[in-house]
């Protein structure tokens, strides 16, 4: 039985050599080319603000407080910097609404807006940045 097995292996090897199927040293396996990922470059216009919280809604815009993420429990804390949020047609805006860009977007500022705040002798002009949501990475 062993002789038969050895003879059949030898016969198979010799047939493949005769038919030209032997290993060619010039034929080397090359893996398919890998797709190279584009290196993502952060847009320098992005502000370090993860979200804003609206505190006043007016006819054509809303005013909101900029938020920051709490280091310990990742909760948002919103106070301090006031921003102008232009209304988009068809969207609903309301007090205490959180506006948070998607993971591929960020908050940026595009110019400023001035408005009058207070009454009587306490009336004064305020200037706030205009919020814009843009792509987080350069294309």
Alpha carbon gap, first and last residue: 69 Å
Residue stretches low in confidence (pLDDT < 50, at least 5 long) are none
Q: What order do the helices and strands follow?
A: HEEEEEE
Coarse shape: elongated
CA radius of gyration: 33 Å
The counted number of beta strands is 6
Portion of residues in beta strands equals 35-45%
Largest sheet, in brief, is: 4 strands, antiparallel
How many H/I helices?
1
Q: What is the structural class?
A: mainly beta
Helix content range: 10-25%
Across the major sheet, the strand order is 3-2-1-4
Short description:
Helices cover 12% and strands 38% of the residues. With 139 residues, the protein is mainly beta.
Walk me through what this model shows.
This protein is mostly beta strands and about 140 residues long. The chain has a domain at about 50-135. Helix content is about 10%, strand content about 40%. The chain has one helix spanning about 1-20, and strands at about 50-55, 60-70, 75-85, 100, 105-115, 125-135. Strand 5 (about 105-115) and strand 6 form a beta hairpin. The N and C termini lie far apart (about 70 Å). The mean pLDDT is about 85.
What is this structure's SSE topology?
Layout: H1 2-18, E1 52-57, E2 61-69, E3 76-86, E4 98-99, E5 105-117, E6 124-135
Antiparallel strand pairs: 1-2, 1-4, 2-3, 5-6
């Amino acid at each position: 039985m062993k002789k038969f097995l050895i003879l059949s292996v030898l016969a198979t090897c010799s047939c493949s050599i005769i038919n030209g199927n032997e290993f060619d040293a010039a034929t080397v396996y090359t893996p398919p080319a890998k797709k190279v990922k584009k290196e993502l470059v952060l847009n320098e216009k992005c502000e370090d603000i993860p979200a804003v919280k609206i505190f006043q809604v007016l006819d054509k815009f809303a005013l909101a407080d900029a938020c920051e993420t709490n280091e310990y429990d990742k909760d948002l804390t919103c106070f301090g910097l006031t921003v102008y949020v232009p209304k988009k047609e068809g969207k609903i805006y309301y007090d205490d609404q959180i506006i948070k860009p998607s993971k591929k977007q960020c908050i940026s500022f595009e110019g400023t807006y001035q408005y009058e705040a207070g009454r009587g002798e306490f009336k004064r002009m305020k200037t706030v940045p205009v919020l814009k949501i843009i792509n987080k990475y350069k294309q």
